[in-house]
Amino acid sequence: MPGVGVCAVSAAQWRRAMKSGGGTLGTTLPHRALALPTEPDPYADSNAPGWLKFLWRNLSPRHVFIGLFLLVFPFIATPFFTFQVATQSLVLGMVALSLSFLAGFGGMVSLAQMTVAGIAGYALAVLGHSSSPEISLAWVWWVAVPFAIVIAVACAALIGWLSVRTEGIYTIMITLAIGVAFYYLVLQNYSIFNGFQGLRELKPPTVFGVYWRDPLPFYFLCLFWALASYFLVRYIVSAPFGIALQGIRDNPRRMEALGFNVVAHRVAAYTLSGLIAAMAGILLAWYNALMSPGSVGAGWQINILVIAVLGGVGHPIGAFIGAIIFVLLQTFAVDMIDRERFNLVIGSVFLAIVLFSPDGLLGLWAKLRLRFGANQAITSTTRRQA
Amino acid sequence: MKLSRDQLAAWILIGGPIAVLSLWAVFDNPRLYFVTLLNSLTLASLYFIVASGFTLVFGLMRNVNLAHGTLYLLGGYVGYVVADKTGWWVIALAAGFLAAAIGGFLMQWLVLRHMQGEELRQTMVTIGISIIGADILLWIFTGQVYQMEAPEWLQGPIRGIPLINAYSAYRLSLLGFGLAIGLGLWWLLSRTRVGMMIRAGVDDRNMLAASGVNVQRLFAITFALGAGLAGFGGVIGAVELSMVPGEDRRLLLVSLIVVIVGGMGSVLGAAIGAAILGLAETYGLAYAPTYSVVFTFLVLIGVLAFRPRGIMGRPA
Questions:
Q1: Could you give the percent of chain B with pLDDT greater than 90?
Q2: Contact yes or no for A188 and B290 at CB 8 A
Q3: What is the DSSP string of A292-345?
Q4: Which of A25, A64, B59, B70 is deepest in the core (most CB within 10 A)?
Q5: For B186-207, how does the pLDDT look when each residue is reduced to its tens digit (9 = 90+)?
Q6: Could you tell me which chain A residue has the CA closest to the CA of B137?
Q7: Domain range summary for chain A, segments of one domain joined by +
Q8: What is the overall mean pLDDT for chain A?
Q9: Residue B64 near residue B119, CB atoms below 8 Å
Q10: Closest CA to A86 of A68, A97, A73, A75
């Protein structure tokens, strides 16, 4: 891989080298320095095991607090809250995470992430069990799920290969077109996708004597995969591949001149984000227990963008923050206004965010800290955010 | 015109199967074949009218207006109300054009003007506007299906056409509308002062501003014109297709595919793209109903694979 030599360069130096060019997306998407410690490491001398040192270096009280909260939460909240709010936020957050990885670190805003998730869900429904035995092949779940993920990831790579042929703003158009085309395909096709009806009764299996669609087990299942994809993204963006990807986002021509294969890196980014979206798609299919054209329509494609932008695409956590706010609005704001007018509310919130804080709520938070916080706080924030 | 060997091979590879299938279809059922041909060309005219506005805006401002479908729906609804009140279809056409044009003008003047050059942010803003606009339209007009009546002088079929026998006069008139809009745009772009400025702006915005043209005013005019074309298409489409929430997304998809296939910012490209899309979609529906979208998609893949900037596209 051409990126291997890069890891010797510190991220800060790398960014400085890349900064002067500035890509077309540079004006709207936040650029963040990568979290590599530059000051001397206080734990370097102690002879504790490596993983403990890693934790000492990177763990702060709020991480412990949030981790504990996530573990305890389902035991104190009502099943409705656990399932409808928390679990849905986690799953939607995963899809949004796959978009914010592409947009924030690859500079490619793809609206087809929900389509990739939908392909995974539909593949699961066709390969596994559903209420339409004449369509579903009724494979066992441990065969159907990996196959569904592989199909979706392959489709994601294909979508990526198609859309990276053009640049910047064109990507959004092509991915939207692909997504809406898929919507019309599943809507019109009855032999494989069962048309408007869709495929119903998709249930997670009973493994180890646990029925995984009960609120509590399903919450932990989603939490596990959400955390896994979150840490995967955090790892990738500071790995050589991720750094090369950010270089490509900022200045593709310079990276090309340095010998990086720009197209291959971009397609790989699509594939990786496709993996996250595909896993979320499986969980989403189980969560809704059905796949219908409505779940892959343009409305949901755009909702995913709304979620990612709401939270902020500069940091992987933004996707989950956006998802929580989106789900809370969906669940509760409509009671206060009018059930039918949810789109009006979410559209206005989205517009306000785009107009006044392009970096999303994370950007707003950073601005507030910049205004009210001490200088020290800012530097530590930028170093932590990767 | 001399073709290189590659071009010849491409023509044979793509054109050959199409020609064979067409020949088979003509002998199998000539009436179906020619009716489908007319259907696809008339549909293509509607697509061209809507997509030409989209490509005009994109070509000059590099702004992907994802609220274009919403403007289409707005024009259609306004046209419906006006036709209902006055009974004049021509006034409805003008009203639909004006309503969408004013909507587009306000979008450009109040919001998009302040984020010039931030393409992605502008696109996000148009997404937000489309979500809000679609919901307000749904609020006012509910989810009911509206269908407009064709004006009296276009109602009923035209009889006595060889092979086809009878064909809807209104659908045939769409061809005329498409041609008129196409010629009008050509005249505007190549024969008037505004058109000259638009063409100059497409090539180099900064140079145009430097030579003393009020670029903001030009942008607003172009945006209003592009949005107006969407509204105009909305009134025409309201008779042919019917208006219901969701049509905005469909026409947005159409505009996207037409300009991706045809090449962004080129009116001729929009015409070619609309013709290809209309043919692929209608023939797909006639001969392979459940897979018609796949044809559209194949066209998109084929064009992107061989001409990433579209058929008439030029390097930006």
A1: 23
A2: yes
A3: -GGGGSHHHHHHHHHHHHHH-TTSTHHHHHHHHHHHHIIIIIHHHS-GGGHHHH
A4: B70
A5: 899 888 988 888 888 877 888 8
A6: A344
A7: 79-384
A8: 78
A9: yes
A10: A73
Nearest CB to A344: which of B136, B249, B259? B136
Answer yes or no: do B297 and A181 touch at CB < 8 A: yes
ipTM surpassing 0.90, yes or no?
no
List chain A residues with CB under 8 Å of B257: 177, 181
Query: Hey, what are B195's tokens?
Result: 């058109």
CB-facing half-sphere around the CA of A138: CA atoms within 13 A: 5
- Say if residue B15's pLDDT is above 80: no
Nearest CA of chain B to the CA of A367: how many Å?
A: 19
Q: What is the pLDDT confidence band of residue A383, given thresholds at 50, 70 and 90?
A: very low
For residues B208 and B215, what is the distance between their CA atoms, to the nearest angstrom? 7
Instruction: Tell which of B110, B135, B276 to mutate to test the A interface (max A CBs under 10 Å).
Output: B135
Secondary structure letter of residue B150 according to DSSP: P
pLDDT at residue B84, as a whole number = 87
The whole model's pTM is what?
Answer: 0.80
Token output for B33: 């074949």
CA-nearest of A327, A359, A365, A362 to A346 is A327
Collect all residues from B whose CB is shorter than 8 A from any CB in A.
62, 64, 66, 111, 117-121, 123-125, 127-129, 131-132, 134-136, 138-139, 249-250, 252-253, 256-257, 259-260, 264, 289-294, 296-297, 300-301, 304-305, 308-309
Q: Looking at the predicted structure, is the pLDDT value of residue B290 above 80?
A: no
Mean pLDDT for A239-260 is: 89
Class level of CATH domain A79-384:
mainly alpha
Beta-carbon contacts of B262 under 8 Å, excluding residues fewer than 6 positions away, are B51, B55, B268, B269, B270, B271, B272, B273, B274, B276, B310, B311, B312, B313
Query: Are A279 and A148 within 8 A, CB to CB?
Result: no
Contacts of residue B3, defined as CB under 8 A and 6 or more positions apart, other chains included, come to B11
* A177 contacts chain B (CB < 8 A): yes
Distance of alpha carbon B294 from alpha carbon B280, whole angstroms: 9
